[in-house]
């Protein structure tokens, strides 16, 4: 997704296109894994141009999440992580219980169970918790 698409998505969601919203969307779209708001700030400080302050980044993420442009991932004992909602299918994630690293898994998610009559799924999350390779290697050292 390029910047004109980001701007259009924000406008289509009924919002004002701001530098912070665009910066957060760019950052999350470029990331290889879901990021915490503090990681977004860290990434933005490494890129040239104006860097929104921490409060502005949190507000931008809250707005983008409330309007369905980014999704909040369930995490255990760590800050929430976010990823852009794109035209791709939902996918599973792996989260390391020690370092908190969260990775998108390329394999398709398992099929959903059949819901009772009248029920409608609005959001599905599959997060596999365990140890990443680095933390596991440290455990065996």
From TrEMBL:
Zn(2+) binds at residues 96, 99, 132, 135. One of its GO terms (biological process) is negative regulation of DNA-templated transcription. CDD domains: Fur_like. Binds 1 zinc ion per subunit. The keyword Transcription applies. GO terms for molecular function: DNA-binding transcription factor activity; transcription cis-regulatory region binding; zinc ion binding. Keywords: Cytoplasm, DNA-binding, Iron, Metal-binding, Repressor, Transcription, Transcription regulation, Zinc. PANTHER family: FERRIC UPTAKE REGULATION PROTEIN, ZINC UPTAKE REGULATION PROTEIN. Belongs to the Fur family. Homodimer. This is Ferric uptake regulation protein. It comes from Tepidiphilus thermophilus. The gene is fur.
């Amino acid at each position: 997704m390029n910047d004109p698409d980001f701007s259009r998505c924000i406008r289509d969601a009924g919002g004002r296109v701001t530098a912070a919203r665009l910066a957060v969307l760019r950052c999350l779209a470029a990331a290889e894994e879901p990021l915490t708001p503090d990681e977004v700030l860290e990434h933005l400080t490494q890129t040239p141009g104006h860097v929104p302050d921490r409060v502005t980044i949190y507000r931008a993420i809250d707005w983008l999440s409330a309007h369905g442009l980014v999704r909040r991932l369930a995490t255990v004992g760590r800050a929430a992580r976010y990823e852009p909602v794109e035209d791709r299918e939902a996918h599973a994630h792996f989260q390391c219980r020690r370092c908190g690293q969260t990775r998108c898994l390329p394999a398709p998610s398992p099929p959903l169970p059949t819901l009772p009559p009248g029920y409608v799924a609005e959001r599905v999350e599959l997060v596999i918790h365990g140890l990443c390779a680095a933390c596991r290697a440290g455990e065996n050292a």
